[in-house]
Amino acid sequence: MPTVPPLADTAAVVARLRASTGAYDHEPVDILGHCLQCAAALAASHPDDEQLQVAGLVHDLGWLATDTHGVEVVLDARHDRVGAALVRDALGPRVARLVGGHVEAKRYLVAAEPGYAATLSPRSVATLSFQGGPSDAAEIARFDRDPDRDALLALRRADDAAKDPDAVVPGLDVWIRVIERVAAAARA
């Protein structure tokens, strides 16, 4: 797994999000657009869980191995773990936990929900194989006991849906105060 320095504060989180503008990972929207769509969907479905919303906003920052507009894809596909390590210091353990679990949620859904795999984008199907494939029975049981199970599944479903190049969602500036509130709560 590549070593990427953690983001120290909300300014660094926002800068990393801005750097994802124009960075594509074989999906029809850039990483920032995808993350904004994901966060907007979670704000609509879970208006009282700002940590979940912010996790949706930052969940794919692990794909960015540099601070530039260029995207260097994490070839071992552990962008979930890279992303969790990136945001833990700035946004707290729960946001990091949700970011770190969104791939596990995909693996769980592929194994536990008939027909789910057919809803995945071609890129998501391709990455599944080197992310461990469908969960096995022990992994399913462990996931079912996770106290954040429902939040992880909501994040995953929002992630899957957030690939519309024509979607109109609030921009990053709308999220800065939410990011700051989540960061402040994590420090409290």
Examine the coordinates and then state which fold CATH places here, giving the name of the CATH topology.
Hypothetical protein af1432
Report the CATH architecture. Answer: Orthogonal Bundle
Largest sheet: none
Low-confidence stretches: 67-71
CATH uppermost class? Mainly Alpha
| Percent range for β-strand residues | under 5%
Overall structural class, as computed from helix and strand content, comes to mainly alpha
Roughly how many Å is the radius of gyration?
15 Å
Would you report the number of β strands?
Answer: 0
CATH-level-4 superfamily name? Hypothetical protein af1432
Describe the 3D structure.
This protein has helices at residues 10-19, 31-45, 50-58, 79-91, 93-112, 122-130, 137-145, 149-161, 172-187. The protein contains 9 helices and no strands. The N and C termini lie far apart (31 Å). The model is unreliable at 67-71 (pLDDT under 50). The protein has one domain: Hypothetical protein af1432 (Orthogonal Bundle), CATH 1.10.3210. By secondary structure, it is an all-alpha fold.
